[in-house]
Amino acid sequence: MYPESLQKLIEGFKILPGVGDKTAERYALVVADTDEETIRQFASALIEVKEKLRPCKVCGNLCDGEICDICADPDRKHDTILVVQSAKDVIAMEKTGQYHGVYHVLNGAISPAKGILPEELNIDSLLERARQAREIILATSATVDGETTAMYLDKLLKKEVPAVLVTRIAHGLPSGGMLDYADEMTLVHALSDRRKME
Ligand SMILES: [Zn+2]
Predict the structure, then answer these.
(1) How far is the CA of 119 from the centre of ligand 1 (A)?
(2) Per-residue pLDDT averaged across 36-51, rounded?
(3) How far is the centre of ligand 1, averaged over its atoms, from the C-alpha of 63 (Å)?
(4) Cβ neighbours, 10 Å, residue 126
(5) CA 176 to ligand 1 centroid distance, Å
(6) Measured between alpha carbons, how far is 123 from 184 in angstroms, rounded to an integer?
């Protein structure tokens, strides 16, 4: 077997998605072969992310302080809020460069099957923000859970903030695919073809 230090590192790599025994072994051996300074920087980046990264107080997106760069940007349209399931979705949409509003990250989707209730999601602060909004765009994924969440939010927003326009992105997204897997053009079209929720 491997020395204990190497074995620990292999176990560490296995927390990453798609990394099994073989790949973890390969990564650990690369680390063993790499110069110490590079590895020190890598190790401190891992720690720094855990120490600094936290949800934005306004939108729930991940950031290195209290408020994310998007919420802090005066040039964004703060009355247009795109509601997504995760911070990964924010990154995907930002890559398109075609969206100029702000976001709201739910941290998941309502799922009767997995026992995830609306109370467990970042919904209360969305209602507060919605009072100052002109449009709320629901961009949860095209899965059953994503659609359930969009319908729940639509009903809630219509009741609490009836004057606000609620729209749903069009789903030219891969079937059952998550928003973050869609290519940029698909996302741009899904956004521009959004429809009013009826
Ligand atoms: Zn934010």
Answers:
(1) 20
(2) 95
(3) 8
(4) 23
(5) 27
(6) 27
What are 2's two structure tokens?
Answer: 């491997």
- In the chain, what are the domain boundaries? 4-52, 73-196
Assigned CATH topology for domain 73-196 = Dna Topoisomerase Vi A Subunit; Chain: A, domain 2 (3.40.1360)
- Find the 99 Cα to ligand 1 centroid distance in Å: 15
Which residues on neighbouring strands pair with residue 138, listed in sequence order? 83, 168
pLDDT at 178: 53
CA of residue 5 to ligand 1 center, whole Å: 40
Strand order in the sheet with 101-105: 101-105, 77-84, 135-138, 165-168, 195-196
The one-character DSSP state at 174 is P
pLDDT above 50: residue 177 = no
- Of the pLDDT bands very low, low, confident and very high (cuts 50, 70, 90), residue 174 is very low
Q: How far is the CA of 73 from the centre of ligand 1 (A)?
A: 9
Residue 175 has pLDDT above 50, yes or no: no
Question: What residues sit around ligand 1, an ion, with C-beta below 5 angstroms?
Answer: 56, 58-59, 61, 68, 71
Q: Angle at Cα 143 formed by Cα 138 and Cα 145, nearest 5°? A: 75
**Domain with residues 4-52, CATH architecture:** Orthogonal Bundle (1.10)
Average pLDDT (96-114) is: 93
